[in-house]
Fold this protein.
Amino acid sequence: MTGSQKHLKGMSYAKYGYLFALPFILIFLIFTLYPTIYTFVLAFTDAHGVGNEVKFLDEPFSNFTKILTNKTFITCFKNTVKLWIMNFIPQITLAMLLTAWFTARRVTVKGQGLFKVLFYMPNIITAATIAILFNALFQYPKGPVNDIIMGIGLRDSAFYFLNSKSASQMLVAFIQFWIWYGNTMIVLISGVLGISPDIYEAADIDGANSAQIFFQITIPNLKTVLLYTLVTSLIGGLNMFDIPKLFNRGGPDNATATASVFIYDKAFTGKQLFAQAAAASIFMFIIIAACSALLFYIMRDKDAIAMEKMKKAELKARRKGASVL
Amino acid sequence: MSQKASSRKGSLAYKILQYVVCILLAFLSLFPFIVMIVNATRSSNQIQSHALSFIPSHYLMNNMKVLTTKTFHPLVGFKNSAIISICATALSVYFSTLTAYAIVAYDWKLKKGFFAVIMAIMMIPATVSSIGFYQFMYKIGLTNNFAALILPAIAAPSTVFFMRQYMIPALPMEIVQSARIDGAGEFRTFNQIVLPLCKPGMATQAIFIFVFQWNNLFMPMILLTQKEKWTMPMMVSQLSGDMYKTEYGAVYLGLLLTVLPIFVIYFLLSKYIIAGVALGGVKE
């Protein structure tokens, strides 16, 4: 009887696994894998404009050399990294500080629920709207922020934020920081709440103070979550588009243009140089894939454990199912 | 004694510092939106003379008239965004749950490899293959067609990953087994027994997918060139153009209209949304 059952499970049910995963696989092949390969192929052609004949290049890598020696692309790539660093360092610092405050077991902050709701809020609002709202707030010579600056006597005259390279960069970084610190904080808090309370109790018994507990127990135990935050933020940062594109149209003088803004402008404005945009995409793809591989490597062990557990649970369920039979 | 008193004073100062920082940050979250809401009701002249005010005025309808007589059509954008977001969310949640079920409930040869691929591509954003995607859609005539934005949602690796993690503890396989004994087909078992059990997890994912789709700018901007197909974020991007250069009141009103649905969703569901973010963060 068990033999025939095994046969049932091993043979006739396996096809449902394939069948149920089929829509995902088909759509993935058509809408993700094929376009990705197609982007790779286009990077070796002279594709430009709409309706032009596409030819492979005689020198296959000339799009890549063009892109990597293009001053604008280099500026955009540097901006992308710079803007990400300028937003990530304050973001993770503030998120850690708030996590320490909100998870402290001795002195808790009251109204935490409301604070969390408000800190997270910018993350859920349309980024395009936020970009243009901040553009409106920093208008010159008459804008709400200039009103405040002159109202409290910080400056005698209005400051032209959108015309200053460094001010524009700082503001784009600030908007990114403002959108993401609440999200990072909630992720870190849930990481801290996942740490076994026994460790904290032991530290209490040993007479450790709050700072010692935070730096010697919380942070080491949070390592995986911190790395996860770092890598996901880095990948998101390398794709930064909405805020830089709409806050100040990448300007002034490309100071806030990112790699994604460059790719969009190359492919969808002016001469529509799809092939060069594809080469720039592939360059970004390689960097992002390397970051993903790093994340995959970091998360690998834990997932293997989860898979094992899943198998054990399945086995258990099966044994139970068999005993019912 | 005095040492204790000073440490108590120190901890009081520390506590005050905590609340000051938290209240400042809360204000920082609200301030831009307060300015947006108040200025949406003020005339462009009022904003020109005093850009910052907390007292609403009575030019809301006037701003609406200015806003809608140009390129910004809130109802068109709202309808288009709603169609795309609702369809994409429904497809994504249903098929991701089905795919997760295929991974959790069945043993098939390529399962491990399939799951590894899902993990590997989860982090690669769609924007890096956008050039090939656009060219492909152009060739098969799907630019300016919502299907190009809706159908890809069926293959959502991160949602499959989440649903798999959710299903492992939440779905007792005994129930599936007994449904089999009762003679229910596998597909019917999924629809009538598994789906209801996964509702809470699906709801959490639905919120995030909907918000992501509603806010998405890059893909619609590439694919949709006809004005009557524009989504809300694309309408918004028009507000910084020359067309609305001096119409400050209308710009603020346009911004307000685009975020209104998100505000409503957020303040009704913030508890679940924040719980969902926390869950997503420890998914590894």
